[in-house]
Amino acid sequence: MGSRKSKVNCPTKDLTPKQIELISQRTNLTEHEIHQRHSVFLEQYPDGLISRQQLYEGLCEGWPEGQIDKFASHLFATL
Known about the structure:
Strand content: under 5%
Number of domains: 2
Radius of gyration: 14 Å
Mean pLDDT: 83
Structural class: mainly alpha
Shape: globular
Low-confidence stretches: none
Helix content: 55-70%
Distance between the termini: 6 Å
Number of strands: 0
């Protein structure tokens, strides 16, 4: 996901305990909620990757009245 220079090759799609802890600290989600959202993401994107267009469409669903063009581009480039 994101620009070519920011891609990290991850051999597994599983979350590590350290990743779960970091996500929990930054989002206040429980470990159970993180696993649920991760499972949903992998159902939608089995290879674990999301295209710029898919990100844009997802943001449009979440904020249908928002102007998310610049935000979506910036978000995709930084991820």
